[in-house]
Queue: 3 jobs
Job 1
Amino acid sequence: MGRKLSFTIFALVLVASFILSSGQAMASEEKKPEQFVGLLAYRTGPFAAGGSGLTSGKEDFMALINMRGGINGKIMYKWEECETAYNAARGVECYNRFKNKMFKVHPESTGITYALIPKATKDKIVVISSGYGRADASDGRVFPWVFTIPTNYWSQNTAKIKWIAMQEGWDGKDMSTIGKYLKGLKIANLHIDVPYGQETKPILDAMAKKFGFKVRHFPVPWPGIDQKAQWMDIVRRFKADWVINRNWGVSCTVPLKEAARLKFPSNRILGVWWCGAEEDVLPAGPAAKGYYSTNFHGVGRDFPIIKEVVDKVYGAMKGNISFTRVGSVYYNRGFVAAIVDHEAILTAHKKFGVKVLTGEEFRWGMEHLNITKERIKEIGAEGLMQPLKTSCADHEGGGMVFFQQWDGKKWVSTGDVITPMRKFVRGMIEKSAAKYAKEKGITPRTCK
Amino acid sequence: MAFFFEVLITGLMVGIMYSLIALGFALIFKASDVFNMAQGAMSLFAGLALVGFLHQYMHLPLWLALLCTVGVMTIWAYVIVFVVLKPLVNRPPLMLFMATFGVMYLMEGIGQSIYGTQAKGLNIGIPDNSFEVAGIFMSSFDLFFAGVAAVLVAGLIWFFQKTRNGRALRAVSDDHEAALSVGIPLLKAWYLTWIIAGIVATVAGVAWGTRLGVQFSLSYIAFKALPVLIIGGLDSIPGANRPLFQALRSVRKRDS
Amino acid sequence: MFYRECGNFKDNYASDMAIFPIPLDRWGFIVMLFMAFVIVPLFASEYLITNIIIPFYCFALSAFGLNVLAGYAGQISIGHAAFMAVGAYSSFILYGRYGIPLIPSILGAGVITAIVGTFFGLPSLRIKGFYLAIATLASQFIIEWVIVHVQWISGGVFGTIEAPDMYLFKLWAIDTPVKKYYLSLCILVLLMTIGKNLVRGQLGRNWMAIRDVDYAAEIIGVNLYRDKLTAFAVSTFYAGVAGSLITFCYVGSANIEEFNVMTSFALVGMIIIGGLGTVLGSFFGAGFFVILPIAINQSLGAFMDVVPSDILSNIESIIFGGLIVFFLIVEPYGMARLWHTIKDKLRLWPFPY
């Protein structure tokens, strides 16, 4: 007993010293001032493929800027990771850990975004939810600290409907004739049954009413590893023409296999952008060939800036992810988000001078972004990202949606870059944001 | 009517896939009174190891890769029984349950550190063609694994009813102390059980892994398999294979 | 030598039945309270208070609730996180939508959860052991489904409710971490005092009788059905209050994904690692499951430049899993038992006998 006890006490002391040692930060002796970026990552758990790509993409971009000599040659990026495991409580902990030194946060999860919006608004930290989170946060009057750059789910779904109409023969220009092509179409909305999955139900319903197509929602229980019953319904009873695959993680892969089993053509399935990565389709093997998905940036390594990363960052063995994944969808998504943030920092530097920015200054930069086509060419990201122009009221910026198809080996852009029905979406966003403002007692600020 | 039968058959197939996992649960519960939380993680690890042997690190032929995977699972069985469970003999079942909870974290962590976190495709060469019989779509893949499950269950029933080791295991599961007093080595019996559970987990890992890709979510299937287990009986091996319930469930889902 | 029981004479019933019959314990407890009420808010950083101590208190409360059920009454539940979710959502609805004052809505959330919990405790009248555990697992899934799908509860498409600003008696805004800390601490101390007295009173003895041998308990006159259901009610009351506290004081929004099945398993882990059927164990277990992962994560951060971050995150779960197994092997009856062993040793130390 005595030996066992002393052994246990020894272990306890070890654990305690572990906890104490965690408080110490490592001293750094950089000469240039540092802009601190706290990254909320998830490299474990069911969504590790997404989390690791997104985080490493951002890190690689920042590493590249540091190699070039820093932001405007004067300020270095410094970043730190915190593992959230896609869990809201841990995400909040990570946020609190970084909140005194950071100026922006990418929650990278819808649940964490919801938890952080009120906190970040209080702490004056910019929340950037690129392509996830609340769609109605695009209304900058009600959500001054939240940006859904470059696009949101509602925009995406209107673009999807437009794209579907184009596949049915619509010319893609005249909105007054779109109804003719959509009339009578049956669209199945296969969604994962969590708040994220349910988010697009109202906009699809509203569009169905407006354009005369039929939409039915097929919920998939979390985590969606088994969707046989839903697919029987979709193919056999509903006899859908198109299926919108709105899932996340493993539940993105399952529909492709199920569709193949029921001989539903894979090129009639259109995925959300979180179902459009290599990791989602590779496990499905040949069943995935022909599957379409949306995106909001380009894929591959065929862009000057990514080539530069390959040369400089990976050439110096400073990369943050296994080399094979450079240029994959999630990696590029993180990379593009980092480019946008960097541009906002540059914009803010123009007004406030070259210095370490606070959240407030950075927000000014985000609201006055104007990334033109020429600027994108200058960055070396032509085709990788879309032109963006934000304003005080519009926190979405571009809103353009890219479409891509899986050819069995890699994602190939279909060349369609579709502008969503911005007026329609904007109306719904403003309505929803106004409702939120009323519930929370927020007075929307006025934008000139 | 054809639709009803199609739903029924599809449900049956899904049920069989789940029963592969439930089988592992039942085996271990029967032999060692442990509600094994790590069953899903075992399937995940088996799937990862197989991908490692087959595609990722080595390019072994399938039979050899499967053999190696079973070997890896045997090592795990040894570690679990002799490192984790041995000191916990005669403790309340809740502690053993908790210990497997820790093993689950260990397995997930170690597996993902070695083989990486991204989803990996697993192709073992079983065709996934679908064909139509009387208006009902069937998949050759589902049928194959239904066959595998049937063979597995038949084999296990035979093992438990007819062989010496199987009878020893049954004695252990009835009463640990009585089994010990007639000279059955408890730990060895457990070791054997965990090896068998490891093999079952490998089959489940392969079946689900080819379907979903080998990724973290495989460890969640275990939770989904729990209803199968409860309806079939926690300590019954034929019971674990009662997919009819699953079929009924999907029929009900269709109606709601 | 250092921990003495002798010289402590009980000359009336009250001192015989005190919670801490030994003066040293009493003083230790007062010192702990002093630490919690004065020292911590004065000296701990904001980060420490919001991220470690508040969740620690909330989970300790919830773990104690589960301990009432599993440790005292012997009815295992692995769906306890769902009851926390019920508490979280109902307190938000009571406070945010109906304007009921803060403290009544937190406690009212507990009452609502207790009603729900009693309903889900009904199977315990017929089944026990792991079969009951699975039945409670079903309650986890049912509750999750209902919360996500009933728009009235979850608030529709954006299925998360944000915490409204908190006011005590419509005057004091509870906005700073320290104020939130005091709110959770006061509720914790209040409920723990009630709970400790509950488990050492008649009801607690009934529960323990049921846990040990249920039919024997029935023979000596314990009303099995009533007491099993009260165990469920009390236990889920604590879970509900804990759930509402954790959302009010820590996360700031009610999100169903946070109370998933893994949280339920973690709660079971807390009471087992901490010690079944002890109040102290609930605290130890909550510390193990709340503080340890953060500590591991932070200390591993130091190795970020050396080890690839992919592997680093996985090492975290390896260490955590390893520690669970380690503690079970070293002390299967939990850290509370370890504490007792240390006390036993201290009684004689430094003398061998």
Note: Chain C has a mean pLDDT of 87.
Job 2
Amino acid sequence: MPIDKVTLEILKNHTRAAAESMAYTLYRTAHSTFVKETEDFTTGLTTPEGETFATPTELGATWFVGLNYGRAIAMIDDYRPGDIAMTNDPYSGFVSTHSPDMHIWKPIFHEGEIVAFSVGHIHNTDVGGAVPASLSRTLSEIHQEGVRIPPVKILEEGTLNRQVLDIFLANVRAPDQNWGDLKAQIAACNTGERKVHEMIARFGIETFRDGVADLLDYAEAQARAIVRALPNGAYPFADYMDEDSVDGRPCRMKLTVIIRDEELIFDFTGSDPQLESSLNMPTGGDERHVLLLVGMTYVLYSLDPSLYLNSGIARVCRCILPSGTMVNPEFPAAVGMRTLSCYRLHGLTFGAFAQAAPDRMAGAPGSGGPIMNVNTIDNRTGRRIMAAISPMSGGGGGRAMEDGPDGSGANQGFMKNTPTEVNEAEAGIKVLRFGLARDSAGPGLHRGGLGTELVFQAFSPNTRVTARNRDRTIFTGWGIEGGRPGAASKFIRNPGTNREVDLKNTDILTIGPGEVIHVTCGGAGGWGDPFRREPEAVLLDWRRGWVSTGHAREAYGVVIADGAVDVPATEALRADRANGKANGFYDVGPERAAFEAVWTDANYDVLTECLAALPVHWRFYAKHRIFDAIDLLDPPARRGDGSEVRAAFDALRAEFPQLGAGRG
Amino acid sequence: MTARHALSLDVGGTFTDVILADRAGGALHVAKSPSVPSAPADGFFGGVDRMLDRSGVDPAEVATVLHGSTIVTNAILEGKGARTGLVTTKGFRHVLEIGRAEIPRAANLFSWVKPRRPVQARHIFEVPGRIRLDGTEATPLDEPAVEAAAEAIRAAGLDAVAVVLLHSYANRAHERRVGEILRSSLPDVEIALSVDVLPVFREYERTVATTLNASVQPVVRRYIGRLSAGLAGRAVEAPLLLMKSNGGACLPEEAARGAVHLALSGPAAGALGAAWLGRAAGIGDLLTIDMGGTSADVALIRNGQPALSTTGRVGDHPLAFPMIDIHTIGAGGGSVATVTEQGAIRVGPESAGADPGPACYGKGGARPTVSDANLVLGRIPPALLDGEVALAPEAAEAAIRRHVAEPLGMDLTAAARGIVDLVNANMTGALKVMSVERGLDPRDFALAAFGGAGPVHGAELMRELKAARLLVPRFPGILCAIGLLATDLRYDFAATRLQRAGAFDAAATEALFAELTHEADRRLEANGVPPERRRFRRSADMRYEKQGVELTVPCNGPITEKALAALIADFHALHERLYTFSEPAAPVEIVNQRVEATGLTDRFALPELPAASSERPEPSGARPACLDGDTLRPTPTYRRETLLADHVIEGPAIVDQLDSTTVLLPGQTALTDRYGNLLISEGGP
């Protein structure tokens, strides 16, 4: 039964405050640098069925609004007061979406009955496995990504399950940190439990129950109203990660957003098959999995910032997730780097919605900057240090009203960076530069935000550096409405020396004392024609050191001489623009345009159809063989209508009779 | 003739509250005069002149002038500081621009605009030279580069410059040297060094504090110059003390140098005032709520002292030095009630402000506010300021009907009640942030409600929080000016020296404390504080190894091995209280050391009321009011000015006074104490 509006509003404040209070407890007590400085964690309250009805607004990661704990909760039979369960296994319950994310949940009882769960996760800096920090694109099986704990009670009626804890901690590289973080999570869940009891005492159990249901309905109604205001239609868009595996082929994600009155369909048909790298996104085929809907939540929330964030929002959308693809992989595909796929999916979602609301969306968010860990030895103490250093953030895309924010403001915005004074103390490195990368912004009438860059030096031999989510060294962040793409990201070893190496999308390497690493995040895409940008605005960026003289000239047609705009030269240059025209609504940059001249939509449609007909374990192999075949074609033989892909596939089947006859 | 009066001026956005207090506890003159936002010194002297004129007190009899000012807050919030430059370590000129890279959770991803930084990127200059984190020098300072920066600053015509070098907290030499070079090259430019403003680690936060300080230094220096000249011109010879964010005062020269420390001048005075009244009433632990027209400030008093925090903000800027721990929310009398598309009621944070103000002001406001709801419910009288401002109940009714009651199909009273309930819920949330989230139980606290609107809602907040008592000051509208009377000189000193677990050095810790104390002592000496009035308090910022947030733990007395052990035990205990657990076996680090220096000033006694001859005061009348439930019932009203010490009133009742109204719920009892405060508790007398 619906409760009255005033009470509902008050209850809403209480639930939000409860989640906030949990987050505060966790944040203040967590141990690892990653949690405390970057806030990669969540807290929340769910219904007994696992639907999240309250999340914090001030702290923590913003990705998991509306995470459904139902499948994980159901994997434990019998709950008693004082129990706390946990899992980090991406293939058990589909709550944890890669192994470092330890999710925990605590049943909250009222008069013997479960009335809610207090839940949350922390991204552990390391959970063991093949590489420090547990995550690398090089990994291909979940078993390499660290210890997996299927749903299990870590506390039974308040008593710690020491055996499970010992097994967990025996398999990780910095057990003190994991244990410290787990204690912070437990404290947060206990805070949530206390808050729920307070709410029940204040509102009564009936009002609490009804109110929670109303809150979910309320968010759903808000989300429906936002969708209703958008024009009906199908809005297809695709984007790529540079490589689907180490030195691999481009990895395509395709999304068609279908707006039908007040409902959304996200059709992922056309996305790449399940990958032999860890870029897969474990969704378990759940058509409302939160991992797929983060971009949608960002978009809806941006269209109406009063949107109440809970699982109710997810009810407006349904995803089409072909099985055995990177958005719905089968066990035991590795999933550790799903973070990068998620980032790309956010941008993809923004891009698709931009067709429906071009004045309210922006160019591509800055991307490709890594989250880095350093594993080295402190020369003074001889101790091994394992520390996360600053995540490299990108700027926001240019938008209808103004430039994108620099160095932050994109979809990574929930992660704080780490002060240099902390990085040097905790990670045993010397930071030579931390700043904004010149010329990285996507040019536009309103340019994209600049990416950040970091240059640091190691002091000890065998210093291992992991740089997760490296990407965008080939395909750059697109501009819209005439805006141009942002610059590619960079990852360079010993820049400016004769030992310089372009590391491209490498995500793990070992360096020695004195060696220098330079890393930048790709720039965000611009909005609108850069040749219409105010020359004075370009000059200001030049004076800030954000745009070079050459870039001002090339990208904006602005000639700067003696510290001022050369007006006649600028006017002449701008009038003479021969190749300044953008390629339609999206400007995806020359690298992607060249790729898509071969790999047309029609070719991809046939590829998708052919691969879908194969057993899952053949698909990635077949994709690569077909790419090889197309590479070998003479350019005139590439018609781009799908026929060459069909021919390559038929040849493959002829080569391998075990694939069976007939057309796919 | 001995000077024995304190003149206290709290200059707010609209009004300047002035008090002239006799040190001996005699007369207390109170006045309100209009502020002049365009020329703050004019508003200040408007108040001074009005008070001297009204009281007839000889300017020579004024012993101290105490001042709370919004000049720094406004300069920061409106971005009206001086044109400021920054000199920083090579490789790090974008630190300020990048910030911590996070965007506010509530921000619209596609329209968020990064808050403007105190220094523009093109006015940031890099100099080579590098200090390591242990304080040793890795690269010598490049002095010619500093001179080149000075030249560029001159060429850009900047008025102020901040100096923030990497790891300067560990070794101040490079920054000091940069300061010297800049001072000799740029004699007319204000200079702020991070080692003077905030010598602790985390470069972005330190840069924000230092650049903000530099940017408001010229503003404050000019302002103070005007005040000093104006006071001298009026033959007021008394020293001028300015209220700082840490709840202490400072002399004008210190205020100019540490200008950013005035950022929370006003709210700090309010908390100090509440703390003082609480101490007088024998209540050491208070939660305070100061509710005005647009916002409510919540603060915490423990053991008679306002709680401080080092993680506060002013506007969009983090300010990481000790400031009164204030939580501000958009809940005031002018907060607007709206109904969303989905049929939910919202109250605030949008405010109708002073103009047009609530609908009931009759100045053209058509949207319903908290004040309109209070008027419709009879909780505030139909005229304010003793009839000077007549309210328009029909306009309030129409606004609530049209914008809340009709869209939701509620009756007028229920809709007004809903608005009040929601604003109360918002304030309760803020009070819980200040108590529960800090590991404190509101039941152990009394609530102090002040500001014009605070006493209207205090009784409900007390009941909701189950707070022990409610204190409503005798003059709720001018508590900040009263708080100024209770202020001492106070300066904070801090230094970062990271000590890892197992490698604590008691002698070095003691030496650093001694150094800080020496610096503090010299400052008080320079301020003319005699030795017997100097007080020093030590504390240490500590954390578990790998934690990113520190707790400040008091540690008075010399640091010995034994004292260090006690300090660690205190840290575990504080952690346990705040976060429900501690880890006695886990390694603990000491990060920062702090010394708080106080110069005690002369005390002014609160004036007392005569005792009442009978327990029950006479009601001034009655009006229909809805104090709880959902109907208006005849409710007795009292005039605050007629109350004497020991008077007792039982709720339901309403106590009206010049600038506020106190609501007393059924079942509550109010006792007037000898200072005129209402002490309200649940249950009978």
Note: The longest strand of chain A covers residues 113-123.
Job 3
Amino acid sequence: MNTLVRDIYNSIHEFVRTFGAFQLFFLRLIRHSPRMIVRRPGLVVKQIYNAGALSLVIIMVCGLFVGGVLGLQGYANLSRFNAEDSVGTVVALALIKELGPVITALLFAGRAGTALSSEIGLMKATDQLAAMEMMAVNPVRRVLVPRFLGGVVAMPFLVAIFTCIGLFGAHLVSIDLLSVDVGAFWQQMQLSVSMDDIHEGVIKSFVFGVVASLLAVWEGYNAIPTAEGVGRATTRTVVISAIAVLILDFMITAVML
Amino acid sequence: MLRRPENWLKALDRSSDNLIEIRDLMYSRGSRVIFKDMNLTIKRGEVTALMGPSGTGKTTLLRLITRQLVPQHGAIFVDGVDISSLNQAGLYELRKRFGMLFQNGALLTDYNVFENVAFPLREHTNLSNRLIRHVVLTKLHAVGLRGAADMWPSELSGGMARRVALARAMVMDPEILVYDEPFVGLDPISMGVIVRLVRRMNDALGITSIVVSHDVAEVSTVADCSYLISDGKVAASGSPDELHAANSELVRQFMHGMADGPVAFHFEAPNYAEQLLGRDAE
């Protein structure tokens, strides 16, 4: 009984400690960010390229097919009520408010997040971060901040691209394949999608960008510096990012309803 | 960037000074005590070797001296300054006076050899690209790898990587060069090259070198003074000749590479016969 209580106490203690450290880590990244943006924009741009441009293929292909499947499902179900003209509305609202930000964030965690974690973890395991410390270069500022900012900047753009390609996919399926009226498709969409819906998507994409990038650099930076440790950190990045994104998605949606 | 004349004078002026002093150092990791009441002095301008069996915490000691780790008790003075009193800015200023060669080189894998050596210059100075090119090529020439400037770290052999790392460690003209196991895993030719470089850098640039190693033969050829560390303390110190002639059993075992002695061949274990008979499980 005594050991059980102690175990529970230790777990809570460990959780609170880690969570506190995580928040301080976030503040450290924020504190160094303005200086890196002003003084070393090249480093940030390179990481935007790494996190953003290199994720484009997976984002575009997935966007196309997610949009396509939404078109199919939307048509199949709406046509039961003779409401297939509304397929544009359904697809647009689903993509802009939910699927765009969420699926992009999950794909981002799998593509860019894991790359960041394993890269930083390996830099740690091969003493590159310690070498920077010894060269009087702060690795948090030099290595982590540009990677964090790269993800934060890239995510809203990726979400926008995912959503646009998704709409294009839905267009292809419902108009070219299922012969929905093209005028109805786009007009219904324009009538029912308001600026608030777009705001919701933008806010989500920004929050998910911060969370997914932050978790990726945190896991990499705190990886146990061995092959196994880096592997585990990479896995944790995907798992924790996915959970965090879905929980936050629920919370933001609830707040913005 | 380059060593300022007044520093030269200061260095000459105080050539007999102790550059690094460790006083009553105590450091433990978890329940394992690594150093206890350790005292050690490193003289300016000399090559000092820190030797000891594997697992005695030689690398840990280096990390303490460069404050990558903080001791639980005791003080470390570098040039008279207690390094535990420094804030981060002060610490980084201090570290600019250090150059460190890591065991595996620790080259930055996303930069080529030239950019690796140029890295500290680009981070800390506003030198023009032309000047940076000059300085980097000079340093690479000194380690014999000017021709490898465009290669990537993954294309280098272990010995070459360590020489590039040495060029990088020297590029800011440090006062103290720290080598972590520079001789491990090198073929005899690369080993000879590194041994000669350690000595030459020290004498030609008037710097202080700290070499952590357990290669007795190599250390004997380069070190002015050696410390043998065992059980968290300095077990013996002196010139390589003095250590070779020492009476202590531990020093003899280490210097002559004997399998058994004060450092036991067998790791702590239960009784052999009883374990084979399975009685230890009962």
Note: Chain A is about 90% helix and 0% strand.
